[in-house]
Write a structure and sequence with these properties.
Elements (H helix, E strand, L loop, with lengths): L3 E7 L3 H12 L4 E5 L14 E2 L8 H19 L4 E2 L3 E5 L2 H12 L8 E5 H7 L10 E5 L3 E3 L1 H15 L3 E4 L3 E5 L2 E4 L4 E9 L10 H5 L3 E12 L11 E3 L16 H11 L2 H4 L5 E5 L3 E5 L3 E2 L9 H14 L5 E13 L7 E6 L2 E5 L5 H13 L13
Parallel strand pairs: 1-2, 1-12, 2-9, 5-14, 12-20
Antiparallel strand pairs: 3-8, 4-8, 5-7, 6-7, 10-11, 11-12, 13-16, 13-17, 13-18, 14-15, 15-16, 19-20
Length: 388
C-alpha cells in the first residue's frame, strides 16, 4: 500500500470515484479511502439516471453533457452497464402539455435533442404508459441509464486494476493533519492534495467547517417494482410525469409552470409537503425503480413513511399501466447545497485540502464533469470559501 500519493480521495461514492478516475487518468498517483466495504450510500440508492434534460441550457447543460460523455467512456473502459435510453416527460393535463411545448420552443433550448411526441408516438416509445388521458410527451435523446451498484463497483475495479489506484474499501479516514491522512487502523498516507467527498457525513471530518456551509441532508423514499411477465417494450426510456416539471431547473422559465404548480397545490398539497415528484427507470424487462420524495434536514432518520410511498404509487398509476408488486423499499440520504449559488460545494480547507459535496440528486449527472474541473484546479462558481 502507498504511504505517499499525489491525491488522497476520501469517499468511495460516485463523487470520490470520479475524482480518483480523473486524477489517475492525468497521471497522478491516487489513494482512495472508503469506510464501507463497497459503495452503499446515495450513489447506489437512486434511479441510475444520467439526466441532462433537467439542467439549464448553458454551462449547466454543457457540464451534464460532458459527464455523459465520461459515462460513455466508462462503459467501454470500465464495463459500466449503460443504456442510451432517452427520456419521456408525460403530459396528462393541458397545463403540462403547455409547459412541454414552451420548453421545446424556447430559443435557449434550440441545441437540445428534444421533440414533442403525440399520443400514438408516445405509446409506441413506451407501451407501458397509461393511455387514458394522455395528451403528449416530450422526448429527449440524451438521457442514459446505469445500474448504480454495478456502475460504482465497475469503476472501483477499473481504478484498481487498470489505473493503479490504491483503492481501500473498509478503510475509514479518521483524521487529516496538513495533508497527512490517517485511517482508523493507524496507517497514514502523505498526499499533495486531499479531496474529501463524504456525502451526508458532515461530522467525521471537518464538522466545524461543514457546520458553517450552506449544506443539508435530504432523505428520499424509493421502491423497486417487479412484474411477473416482461413489460411491453422493456427496457425503455426513463419516464417522468407533470410533478417532475416542478422539480428540475430546466423548466423553471416556462410560463405555464405556475399553472401546473397551482393545480397540484390545490388537488393534493401533500405532494409539496413531502417533496414528491414521480419518475420510473427500467431495470431489465421485469423491474422498475420508482420514486421519490425529498425531506431536508441535517440529521435525517431512517424511518419510512407509508403514506409517502402510497402517494408515489397512486401518482405512478396515473402515468403507467403495469401489474407489479413491490419487491424492495429503501431510504436514501444525500447532501445538497442550499443557498442556490451553485450546483455543489467545492470548499477549500486550505490550499491542498478540499471538500467536494452537496450535489443533491444530480451526482450521477454532474459528478464526472465537476470532478474533472476540481482535478484540473478550477475553483469556479461552485466554490464557497473566502479563498476561492
Amino acid at each position: 500500500m502507498r504511504t505517499e500519493a499525489d491525491f488522497v480521495v476520501v469517499g468511495g461514492g460516485i463523487v470520490g470515484l470520479a475524482v480518483a478516475w480523473h486524477a489517475a487518468r492525468s497521471g497522478k498517483s491516487v489513494v482512495l479511502m472508503e469506510r464501507s466495504t463497497r459503495s452503499i450510500g446515495a450513489s447506489i440508492r437512486n434511479f441510475g439516471m444520467v439526466w441532462p434534460i433537467g439542467r439549464v441550457a448553458g454551462e449547466d447543460l454543457d457540464r451534464a453533457m460532458r459527464a455523459r460523455g465520461h459515462w460513455l467512456t466508462l462503459s467501454v473502459d470500465a464495463g459500466v452497464d449503460l443504456r442510451r435510453c432517452g427520456s419521456l416527460h408525460l403530459a396528462h393535463h393541458e397545463d403540462e402539455a403547455a409547459v412541454l411545448a414552451e420548453f421545446v420552443a424556447a430559443p435557449e433550448n434550440a441545441g437540445r435533442q428534444v421533440r414533442m411526441l403525440d399520443k400514438p408516438q408516445t405509446l409506441e416509445a413506451a407501451p407501458i404508459v397509461r393511455a387514458d388521458g394522455l395528451l403528449c410527451a416530450l422526448w429527449s435523446e440524451t438521457e442514459c441509464a446505469v445500474r448504480p451498484a454495478q456502475a460504482t463497483g465497475a469503476i472501483a475495479a477499473h481504478l484498481a486494476d487498470d489505473l493503479a489506484v490504491d483503492v481501500r474499501f473498509g478503510s475509514a479516514a479518521a483524521s487529516i493533519c496538513g495533508t497527512a491522512v490517517t485511517t482508523a487502523d493507524g496507517s497514514t498516507v502523505q498526499a499533495e492534495r486531499v479531496v474529501v467527498c463524504s456525502g451526508s457525513d458532515f461530522v467525521s471530518l471537518y464538522p466545524g467547517r461543514f457546520g458553517s456551509l450552506p449544506i443539508t441532508a435530504c432523505q428520499l423514499q424509493m421502491m423497486r417494482l417487479g412484474c411477473a411477465e416482461p413489460m411491453a417494450g422493456a427496457p425503455g426510456p426513463h419516464l417522468a410525469g407533470g410533478l417532475t416539471l416542478l422539480h428540475y431547473p430546466a423548466f423553471a422559465k416556462c410560463p405555464s409552470l405556475a399553472r401546473v404548480r397551482d393545480r397540484y397545490l390545490q388537488s393534493e398539497p401533500r405532494f409539496a409537503d413531502a417533496g414528491i415528484h414521480v419518475m420510473a427507470a427500467y431495470e431489465g424487462q421485469r423491474e422498475l425503480i420508482v420514486g421519490d420524495s425529498h425531506r431536508y434536514e441535517r440529521d435525517c432518520d431512517q424511518y419510512r413513511a407509508e403514506w409517502i410511498d402510497e402517494l408515489i404509487l397512486d401518482y405512478l398509476a396515473t402515468m403507467i399501466s403495469v401489474r407489479a408488486r413491490i419487491v424492495e423499499r429503501w431510504v436514501g440520504v444525500y447532501a445538497k447545497r442550499t443557498d442556490g449559488m451553485g450546483q455543489w460545494i467545492h470548499e477549500f480547507v486550505d490550499d491542498r485540502v478540499e471538500l467536494l459535496n452537496g450535489f443533491g440528486g444530480m451526482g450521477m449527472t454532474l459528478a464526472l464533469a465537476a470532478a474533472e474541473e476540481v482535478v484540473n484546479g478550477r475553483r469556479g462558481a461552485a466554490a464557497v470559501s473566502s479563498g476561492a
